[in-house]
Amino acid sequence: AYCELGAADKAERLLRQSFETRRTHLGDDHLDTLRSGRYLSSALADQGFPDQALSSVEQLVKLSQARWGDNHETTLRLQAQLGHHLWKCGELSEAHTMWRDTHRRALEHLGRKHELTLTVEANLVAWKNQAEPSQEHLNELQELVPILTENLGATHPITLMTLRNAATSQYLVGDYAGAHRSFEELLPAYELLGGRDYPGYQSTQRSIVNCLRELGSVSEAICRAEELLERQQAIYPPGHPAVLATVSELGQCLIKEHRTGEAKDLFTQQLEFAAESAFNTDGIEHQLQANLAQLEIEQQQYELAAQRLETLLKSSSGDRAMIASNPVSYT
């Protein structure tokens, strides 16, 4: 329940206690221990520690394969989650390979209509769209929605994720008005699912800010972003990746309205928070630095912008920045 409500810190404490208790009394490779470990890795990722989550689930996959075999449902679920964490860590090709193998095995041993098979299929279609946005890939996402609705339900998180990915695809191919409508239609379902603090609700609000900015409704975009940021700052600590992502979008809106001083102060403050936080914020820090470079170019501070961009190009955080702004997979 804490995971679904976005209270990953509380979830992590309870799940770690449960995981350690089961390891002690049932063993490292018991099915209940492996399941607890999978939930724990999700909580770690949700808190902004994707590298820790990736390392932990890699070990769980090996344990499950050794005890239960490559085709057991527990192993397949862990592999699907491993693909999710690889994606979050910017290992896009590795994530695709993992999901493709998992989908093949799930299709053979669990069937097309099984929840896990459909989840991984949705992730694969979203991966293709993220790697190369096109009308063809948008059509694939839209064609998958009725299948998910029939087998999982209209408000199942995976169905909603796929609808959100389809809306993102509309945005990426330049249909900003259509994307805006699609994102707005998702908000009530996410609010019903987990309230306004639910991560899916907040991500959708951020996407709406993007659409409004591209449509020229910058004042409305700023209002939406400021409302979201105020809510997030009330529930998340400084430097949390979700807060930084919203700051990035708000700052870009401020730049669009030529409020460059406010944008610069906002970016600078949040980068200081990110540097001091325990979260893995590489990707979104990369985006904030890119935003600052954009601002410096607008202010004709070309030398500063060039130095900043050269530093960013030498880093390996580019994929993470994209993932931080465009989460597409579900576990």
Question: Could you explain how this protein is built, in words?
Answer:
By secondary structure, the chain is mainly α. The chain has helices at residues 8-26, 31-46, 50-68, 73-88, 92-109, 115-131, 135-152, 157-172, 176-194, 199-214, 218-235, 241-256, 260-276, 282-298, 302-314, 318-325. The longest helix is centred in the first third of the chain and has 19 residues, at 8-26. Helices cover 79% and strands 0% of the residues.
Number of strands: 0
Report the structural category. Answer: mainly alpha
Largest sheet: none
Tell me roughly what share of residues is in helical segments: over 70%
Secondary structure layout:
Blueprint lengths: L7 H19 L4 H16 L3 H19 L4 H16 L3 H18 L5 H17 L3 H18 L4 H16 L3 H19 L4 H16 L3 H18 L5 H16 L3 H17 L5 H17 L3 H13 L3 H8 L6
Helix pairs in contact: 1-2, 2-3, 2-4, 3-4, 4-5, 5-6, 6-7, 6-8, 7-8, 8-9, 8-10, 9-10, 10-11, 10-12, 11-12, 12-13, 12-14, 13-14, 14-15, 14-16
Q: What would you say about this model in short?
A:
With 331 residues, this protein is an all-alpha fold.
